[in-house]
Every structure is written in C-alpha cells, then in structure tokens.
C-alpha cells in the first residue's frame, strides 16, 4: 500500500495548509507590511515610512504603560491560575483520604467540577458584564458584602488603585475552571498504584502534590503555562468590556492600545499594525521561552 | 507520540493562531483602491432635480443602531422612494460602524449614506484627512424640499454648518440639535422647595442644603468622566467668552491653562472637596449614574439633550427632567447665565467614493425637509437642525425645557469642536484627566496640566491633521 500514501497525505494536508496560509499567515505578513506604512485605514493610499512607526512606539508612554500592565499580568495570571487549578484538581482527585480506600476525591467532586467549569461555558462578554455588576460601586455584590460587615468598600473599577487587580481577579476566575478539568484529566492518567505507594510511605498531601503529582503532570502544566502566557499578553476582551483601559489608563493592555489606535479614537492602521507586530514577537518569545525553560526529562510509565 | 506530545504540539501550533487580536483586518491597502471601472450614478440637473439624482439609481443607507433606533431612517427612506419610486434602497443598521465599513472604504465601495455615530464611530480626523467624504455644498445651495423660497442652508439653525466643516469645507451633516447642560428633576426641586441656582456661590450653598437633606447633590458617569468636562469648559467660556473655546479647538499653546479655565476648574473643585458627589460615582458608567439620578439619589447630572430618550425606560412618571445652563461665576462673566452650549450632533456623511453621491445628498435633503424633520422629532423626541421644525409637534417635558433653554440662550449660545477635530483628545486624554480630577485624586492645577499635556501631544503628532476654526 506504499504507493497509496502520497495521495492520502496530499488530500488531507493540502487543504488545511492552504486555508491556514490564506487566513492566518497572509494577514500576518500583510500586518508586517502595513506596519511600515503611514496607512490611515480609509483610503488605499499608504506611504512607506520604514521603521518610523516602531520609533514612535518606542517613545510612546501609553504603549509602555500598557506593556507594563501586560508584564504584571504575565507574571501573575499563569501562576495564580495554575496554582489554583492544581489545588482544586488535586482536591477533586485525591482530597479525601477516608478509610482504607486510598485515593479518592472530596465528597461532591462531580458537582464542584461542574461548578468550576461554569465560567468556561459563559462567553467572555457575559463574564465581563457579570463582573461589571459585581463590581458596581453601590449595588454590587462586593460592596454590599463589605458594607454588611461594616467595612468601607472601594469603587473597584472606578479607582486606578483597585481597577487593575479587579480585572486580574476576573481573568484568573474565568480561567481556573478549564485548568481544573485539564489537570484533572491528566491526573486520572497517573497510575493509582503510585499514589497508594506514596500514601503507604506516609507522605502528606502537600508533599504528594509537590513530589509526585506535579512532576508527573509537568507537560500539561507547561502547556497551561504557554496558553495562559498568551492570554496574559492579550487580555483584550475582558479589559475592553470592563474598563476599556481606564480609569486614567490604569488597566490598559497592549491589545486595547492597538484596537483603540485603529478602530477607537484614531484610525492609524499603520501604527496599530506596528503595535500588532510587537505583540506578535512578544507572544512568540514568551511562548518559546516558557517551552525551553520548562523542558524536563519525560517520565515514562512502564 | 503520546497524548501529551499532541497537546504540546497543538499548543505550539496555536501560537501562530493567537492572539486573535493580532489580526487586524485582513484586507491590505493594496486591496481594491480606485475602482475606476465602477459606474457612478448621475442624472441630469434640473429645477425639479437640483442635485442631479438618477431616478432609478439604488441607494444604500447605513444607520447607527443606537438610542434613536432605525425606524426614523426607514421613514426617511420611504419619503425618498415616494419621490423616486424606481430607486431601490438598501437599508442596514449596525452599532459597529468602524469595523463594518472600514474594509468597504478601502475597497472603494462604501455605502451612499452613513450615520457615523456611537462609540464605534470612525474618527472624522482620519476620514477628512484621507478625502474620504463628499462635500455637501451642493446640498446647501439646493432649494428646500418643502419650505418654499428657501435653500437648504436657509432652513438650518445657526452653527449647523460650522460644526460639520473642516477648514471651511462642509463635509458632515449633523442632524440633531443638542443642548448640553446640567439636569435636575423639577418635581424633586418643587417638593423640597429648592430652586436652581444662577450663580456658583448659590449653587454651592444649594449643594450644601441638598446634602443636608440626605441626597447627594451630584453624580456623574465615572467611567466616562468627559461628561463632566462639558459643564467645566462651559463655565470657563461663560467667564471668558467664546475665545476660550476657539483657543482649545485650535490647539493654541496653554489654551487649557487660560485664566478662565483655571478659575472654572477651581470653582468645580469645590463639589469634589466638599464631597457633594454621590459615593461610588467614579465606578458608574453613564447609564448607571443616570439611573441613580432618576432614582433620586442625586440632584444634578451633566448630560446632553439625548438624556430624556436614553432614560425613557427608567424615569418615574412626573419626574419632569429639566435642563439648565451652568451657573455664572459672577458679574464679571462675559456671557449671561442663560448662555448654553448648543450644537448640531448625530453625524451623517456621504463617502466621496459612494456610487450614488447625488442620491445621498438628495436623501439628506429629504431628512432636512420640514416633513422629514418633524417626523424625526416625533419618533425619537429630539430636535433637528431644521429651524422651526418643532412647530405643531407636541414635545415631551424634558425636550420642551431644552427648547426653552435654547431660546433663552439665543445668540449667546456657544460651542466647541475639538472633540470632532481630535476624537482622541476628548475620548482618551481629557477623559482620563476628568476621571482623576472629579474623583479628587488631583488638584485643579494638575488637572489642567494633564489636559494641556494631552492637547500638546496631539499638537505635536505630525501624523494627525490639524484644523483651525475662525473665532
């Protein structure tokens, strides 16, 4: 059947590759080209300006401010999400250690799993609107709760001191559920005997997580890391809907800056493309770095 | 290859597909460009047909599906087809004007009429500097459709042409006439025996009284704090005269730090210092703050005359919302208390590359007919730029106070247009400064400093085309 291999490969691979080149690669290439022009987006006239857009960008305080926020997101969102995700997944998979049964989850695990997954089912737009109401400074859930116990409440999204952290919290909240399920699935692939052996040796839950679960899940954690890093460099939809970068640019992220430059307060498509190109390289470097740094020996079960 | 390998590889592959936002519009500048082969529709001009409409030419109209809805436009379209039964009208309505239409502008196939409005409005500076808009002078010179003996220009309220002009070219028809002022509930004030203060000192005294009665004197759209720049700038203009506004519009050096602006900012700082603003206002958006105001939690709010229709669903019966000018700072004011900011709003445009430019202009002529304007006012409870079009139309309470305020203001009315010239300046930069100022985080001097810095950044940006207007 050797002679039948090529037609099969061609039939199955060429159409997707063509689609990919057409819809994904070519817009990127175009964005690179546009980023070297002064195109204003509403006519076909665009003059090549070389790297002028990148030079402007280098001196653009608003872009740097947005990048700084992205950097904080990059530092915190993946860590918080993965730690919480691992914690919940561990509790669901082996939190209960009752009797001699060995490794079981906490009671009601299936229910929790469903509840954790809720945010994943909702569209991001709904999540943003939902949390906007939660953060309502007068009638919101959080303010009411604070007042109920006699605490003063901040204005949440209205105060530059709190707005960014409020958005960050929503980012973590909306992502954790997915990683609980992802880690849960990976854990179920770990042979139970290993845990039973660990249990017999008298390891605490934390030690089990650190010494056994985490190394066995390392590949999955790494994938999660890459996804979350990309998310943190984007973060566009949530920020745009919840604060649009305000108040006073305190929640601005690079994606919002790009969108605003092209479609929002200006029509500088050339400059916006330059921001997009920078985003592209940042995302790529972060992803490559986290895949390289996180490389470890793979453990094979035999 | 095990499952984890696959996961890993798919992660690596998807790097190229994300972030999705990185994909600006897929179309390139080289896309369509000038489609010289595309046919444009032009009929012969005559007394009956001063704009030279080709009677069977199709007309495409794109309406912003915002607070005014789209029914009024369908009525205007019906009036158009009444005159040109052979013309086919393609009507659509969207809230995403810029995203929907950007590729079509590049492609050289834009619609014939665009209602460029809302938060996804296309920046006019960009459109004008790229010559994307058709001039409307022929429209102004054409006779009115149903007001005999007058050209379209004669039927418009003063200022309607200026606000849509860039370096003297009239390019944008702003269809509604909007007043910007301070709103209160006449019922609340009557019940409590308060009356609207005409001077700033009285206003502060009244705020004290209102606060003592357990109501917050003020609230504002904390997430869009530029709403508060309107009364502040108005106060400054009334103190220093319209030249304050001209300087700001023309990006003159230190225009934001003029004596008038300084005095006005100091005055307005009082309501921040004395905590006359509803708690939590900095975290409210425009709808939330307006609703708090309708619920009687605050006495004053700054807004334009669209407020009444925007709040229709939540306004209690008998609330009687009333617009009033900003209080005078003192007897030294150059403009009287009655002076209010009135301006044409709700922009409509005909793209320069539209195939049926004449039809687009004729559509505007239909909108600006007395019949078209009256129908609009009836349908959406807003004024149009057509003078006297409210005759015989019963107006809702709030709108009738707007008409009265505009009448009283008369020739003392004022306006500014920097928000049209440089959308980014108002939407981003002044907005951010107002947020800091009205939540009490910066002083009046720092506020004006931040505003000036924003204006300077626009002035220094060589990629933004600059416009000037005469005094």
UniProtKB/TrEMBL annotation, chain A:
Q: Where is the ABC transmembrane type-1 domain?
A: 67-290
Entry keyword annotation includes Transmembrane: yes
Q: Which UniProt keywords apply?
A: Cell membrane, Membrane, Transmembrane, Transmembrane helix, Transport
* InterPro entries documented for this protein: ABC_transporter_permease (IPR051393), MetI-like (IPR000515), MetI-like_sf (IPR035906)
Matching entries from SUPFAM superfamilies are given as: MetI-like
Taken from the record, one Pfam family name reads BPD_transp_1
CDD domains xrefs: TM_PBP2
Q: Where is it predominantly found?
A: membrane
How is this protein situated with respect to the membrane? Multi-pass membrane protein
Do the record's keywords include Transport? Answer: yes
Instruction: Give me the segments passing through the membrane.
Output: 7-29, 71-93, 114-131, 162-185, 216-239, 269-291
Which superkingdom, per the lineage? Bacteria
Subcellular location field: Cell membrane
Which PROSITE patterns does the entry mention? ABC_TM1
The record's comment on protein family reads: Belongs to the binding-protein-dependent transport system permease family.
Write the protein's name. Answer: Sugar ABC transporter permease
Q: Native species of this protein?
A: Micromonospora trifolii
From TrEMBL, chain B:
Q: Which residues form the signal peptide?
A: 1-30
Q: Which UniProt keyword terms apply here?
A: Signal, Transport
> Which PROSITE patterns does the UniProt record give?
PROKAR_LIPOPROTEIN
Compartments (UniProt record)? Cell envelope
> What NCBIfam families would the database entry show?
chitin_NgcE
Query: Which family is it part of?
Result: Belongs to the bacterial solute-binding protein 1 family.
By what name is this protein known? N-acetylglucosamine/diacetylchitobiose ABC transporter substrate-binding protein
